[in-house]
Amino acid sequence: MAAQQRLICASTDLSEAGRAVRFELRRSEGVVPAFAVRWRGEVRVYLNRCGHVPVEMDWQAGEFFDHSRLYLICATHGALYDPATGACLGGRCDGRGLIAVPAVERDGKVYCEES
Ligand code: FES
Predict the structure, then answer these.
(1) Is the pLDDT of residue 49 over 70?
(2) Which of 52, 64, 71, 73 for mutating ligand 1's site (highest number of atoms within 8 Å of CB)?
(3) Model-level pTM?
(4) In the chain, how many domains are there?
(5) Distance CA 55, CA 48 (A)
(6) Is residue 111 situated within a structural domain?
(7) What mean pLDDT do residues 47-72 have?
(8) CA–centroid distance, residue 53 to ligand 1 (Å)
(9) Residue 11 belongs to a domain
(10) The CATH number of the domain where 46 resides is what?
(11) Per-residue pLDDT tens digits for 69-114
(12) What is the mean pLDDT of the chain?
């Protein structure tokens, strides 16, 4: 099945290294939780699934950045991820990064690909 673009939110809903927009995404394996953040001006979308244990990562709903606002952090055991790529930077993710979802920003709205 071809990927479709799914509207996530307005561009203004995502502030730099701020609170994420959580949403559910339809994928081949079913409906899964995901989130969008803004990092260095760009929108990044990842599945809300830690590389250590496949649990949701936010410590409060929509809060994925650590106190430094430089890394995404898993609330369960503290694994750190690069907001730009989702790569594991330390902790129990042990090299297993986040799963990125292609996203685009157009006419003040944010979209991602849904299968
Ligand atoms: S479940 Fe995320 S670090 Fe363990």
Answers:
(1) yes
(2) 52
(3) 0.96
(4) 1
(5) 7
(6) no
(7) 97
(8) 5
(9) no
(10) 2.102.10.10
(11) 999 999 999 999 999 999 999 999 999 999 999 999 999 999 999 8
(12) 96
Model pLDDT, residue 80? 98
Give domain status of residue 52, yes or no: yes
pLDDT of 2 > 90? The answer is no
pLDDT, residue 105, reads: 97
Tell whether 78 is covered by a domain.
yes
Range of the domain at 29: 16-98
β-strand pairing of 21-27 with 30-39: antiparallel
Q: How far is the CA of 75 from the centre of ligand 1 (A)?
A: 7
CA distance 8 to 15: 14
Phi, psi of 12 (to 5 degrees): -70, -10
Q: What is the pLDDT of residue 1?
A: 57
Residues at CB less than 6 angstroms from ligand 1: 50, 52-53, 55, 74, 76-79, 91-92
The alpha carbon dihedral of 7, 64, 47, 88 has a sign of: positive
Q: Residue 39 in contact with residue 83, Cβ under 8 Å?
A: yes
| Residue with CA closest to ligand 1 atom 3 | 77
